[in-house]
Amino acid sequence: MKTLAAQVITPEDLLKHWQGHRALTRHVIEAFPEKDFFEFSIGGMRTFAKLTDELLSIAVPALKGIVKREVSPYSEPEEKLIFKAQYLEKWDEATAEIDKYWQELTIEDFNDTFNLFGQYEFPIIHNVLYFIDNEVHHRGQGYVYLRALGIEPPFFWER
Amino acid sequence: MKTLAAQVITPEDLLKHWQGHRALTRHVIEAFPEKDFFEFSIGGMRTFAKLTDELLSIAVPALKGIVKREVSPYSEPEEKLIFKAQYLEKWDEATAEIDKYWQELTIEDFNDTFNLFGQYEFPIIHNVLYFIDNEVHHRGQGYVYLRALGIEPPFFWER
């Protein structure tokens, strides 16, 4: 293993951090009434179902692309999910897939550059941080939707 | 220096990542009309001025507390800012202070546990990730406020 500059978080901890955020996002999906998950939005933004489509279309496909070093364009699934329960099932499948692919990442991989979706050419660590940030960002939007619907969102630190 | 487990991001990169997010949050503050920054909200949530108060009350005080290992309770400033320009000025002061205090962190510090604000007893790396996540979360709320006001928010990748 080549020598690395001193760094501040282990892969195990970063995975735990990401999966902690994903657990919170799952609570947010659960908190939406069935109808509002698919229909409610503010200011012409996407519904939380649509935002969840994006999160699912990034997480596993992106991580798999990184691990296999296969550059594929970003795409959302053809199959349209129509129940929240289907989203939760996909979410849980993704949780297991992420855990599995993460094990294939070596410590050196994080500093390698990868052209994610053929669009984002960055060190892998920054691709991973981007997935997390993007999820936190959209989930923050979901919190506003829930509040606007008169629903108390889960605590931010509930992971 | 003691031996550390292999890890995935340098302190310099993490600072750059945080300050990149802070630059984007600054754009979001700028994007609000003066009046709406202080008055607009959805579903009984805080205004973006109030959310910015929180972000300012965490960033420098928290980092300073960590560096000095001084446990002080969380508090928001007594001085009430009434113009967006004052917030932007405070924001820029905080940017410089963060850069300054960050230099005092050693690589070992990140794995040390610190009782942030006397409330959050975690390894310092997790305290820092929490500041960033919290900012991304609240900024995501700001994006919805802007959209609800008919204003195009800055691009998420504009740092």
Automatic annotation (TrEMBL), chains A, B:
It holds the Pfam family DinB. The keyword DNA repair does not apply. It comes from the Bacteria. Transmembrane segments: none annotated. Keywords: Metal-binding. Belongs to the DinB family. This is DinB family protein. It comes from Flavobacterium cupriresistens. The lineage of its organism: Bacteria, Pseudomonadati, Bacteroidota, Flavobacteriia, Flavobacteriales.
